[in-house]
Specification:
single chain; 452 residues; alpha/beta; Alpha-D-Glucose-1,6-Bisphosphate, Chain A, domain 3; 4 domains; five-stranded mixed β-sheet; 18 strands; globular
């Protein structure tokens, strides 16, 4: 069982275990040692988002990597998918992104990418954790082998060019007005620049990071301001990224917010139509709306479901030969272009769809009628209430009530102390009642823990 790694790297409150400089140094040294293979000079590509704590974590990692004998190429603030891209294209041995993605500024995290540009598998993470427990002397380089550090100057430009290559070269965004909200995060320079270079008129929001305002009432987790700005400015579309640029939420020209399921559906159907879809369908998670599955089935396509997290989406895609996958939250993975979720590249696919269909975003992104779905988050402290007998009993009874007319998922978040409830089905009143009842049972079970 893993001690440090969760569903998407290591994550927690900054300067609190495990997200401390000490753990970051240990991780850097252990991960560096794990990827020291062969006689060449070994290199790690290191990026971060815009959190103040990124400086602390970044420099602790650098100390660990150089201690293990790895050279470090600092990228600075850049989207998470850029690290996957650069690790592979630069023939680096390891890629690292310091980010807590969509979480608030007080949190931070560390994501690791292998030399192929993909996030690490469980067995690699377990081995790195074991190396973290080794005596320092066993995994440290000799004095003459200590690594060097340099800033990689053209990294952002390389990523912008790679993202633009995912846009139809026969098309232009000239005359298209786009509101882009970068969440005061990692994509605050790259996304507006790429869209502008493709010809768009760009209205940029969330491009003034100060170390504390990442994801603060902006970006993919709070797209309302972006959607309103689309309406106020008469823009054609709105694009919202999250703090590390791997999620996308869209607003159409009417200000209607469009989630990742609709985006995934549009990309999948268009690729099926033009013959560039692999795997006979797409991969989504257990959270994706049943309406998406029914819509793809209507076109003879399959929807394979994975565990929550774009890492698990990618694993299922690679195993099944799919090139399109994603999550309702806005992680859209297009393996033809990126090794992980990429909000900018996904946005460019939707913009291409609008141009190719010669229709507004409201029509292009209206792919299926979603089934009524309730999503609720219940925060907890201490022990997880997920396996409390009363909670388990309530879930079992709810599944019986839904039968084959809906779905129920109750799970613990892999990145924060939250129980997530998802209920969907054909009867909106029923799912509202069930989700409310389950939320209350979980809250009451916590009160029971406190009393004990």
């Amino acid at each position: 069982m893993k001690t440090y790694f969760g569903t998407d790297g290591i994550r927690g409150e900054a300067n609190t275990y495990p997200m401390t400089a000490e753990v970051a140094l240990q991780l850097g040294r252990a991960a560096g040692r794990y990827f020291m293979r062969g006689d060449h000079r070994h290199t790690v590509v290191l990026g971060k988002d815009t959190r103040l704590s990124g400086y602390m974590i970044e420099h602790a990692l650098i100390a660990g990597f150089t201690s293990a004998g790895m050279d470090v190429r600092k990228i600075g603030p850049c989207p998470t998918p850029a690290i996957g891209l650069l690790t592979r294209s630069m023939r680096a041995d390891l890629g690292v992104m310091v980010t807590a993605s969509h979480n608030p500024h007080r949190d931070n995290g560390i994501k690791l990418f292998g030399p192929d540009g993909f996030k690490l598998a469980d067995d690699a993470e377990l081995t790195i954790e074991a190396l973290m427990q080794k005596p320092t002397a066993e995994i440290s380089a000799r004095p003459e082998e200590i690594g060097q550090v340099a800033v990689h100057e053209d990294a952002k430009g390389r990523y912008i060019e790679a993202a633009k290559a995912a846009f139809d070269p026969k098309r232009s965004l000239a005359g298209v007005k786009i509101v882009v909200d970068c969440a005061n995060g990692a994509g605050y320079r790259t996304a507006p620049q790429a869209l502008w270079e493709l010809g768009a008129e760009v209205i940029a929001l969330g491009v003034s990071p100060n170390g504390f305002n990442i994801n603060d009432g902006c970006g993919a987790t709070a797209p309302e301001e972006m959607a309103q700005r689309v309406v106020d400015t008469g823009a054609d579309i709105g694009i919202a990224l999250d703090g590390d640029g791997d999620r996308l939420i869209v607003a159409d020209e009417r200000g209607r917010i469009i989630d990742g399921d609709q985006i995934l559906g549009r990309i999948c159907l268009d690729r099926h139509a033009n013959g560039t879809l692999s795997g006979g369908g797409a991969v989504a998670t257990i959270m994706s709306n049943l309406g998406l599955e029914r819509r793809l089935h209507a076109d003879g396509l399959k929807l394979e479901r994975s565990a929550v997290g774009d890492r698990y989406v990618v694993e299922a895609m690679r195993k099944g030969g799919f090139n399109v996958g994603g999550e309702q939250s806005g992680h859209i993975v297009l393996l033809d272009h990126a090794t992980t979720g990429d909000g900018l590249i996904a946005a460019l696919q939707i913009l291409c769809a609008c141009l190719n269909h010669d229709k507004p975003a409201s029509a292009v992104c209206d792919v299926f009628e979603p089934l009524p779905q309730q999503l609720r988050n219940v925060h907890y402290e201490g022990l997880s209430p997920l396996y409390n007998d009363k909670v388990q009993d309530a879930c079992a009874k709810a599944k019986v009530r839904l039968g084959d007319r809906g779905r129920l998922l109750v799970r613990a978040s892999g990145t924060e102390p939250v129980i997530r409830i998802m209920v969907e089905g054909d009867d909106a009143a029923q799912i509202d009642q069930i989700s409310s009842e389950l939320e209350n049972v979980i809250i009451e079970s916590q009160a029971g823990y406190a009393a004990e």
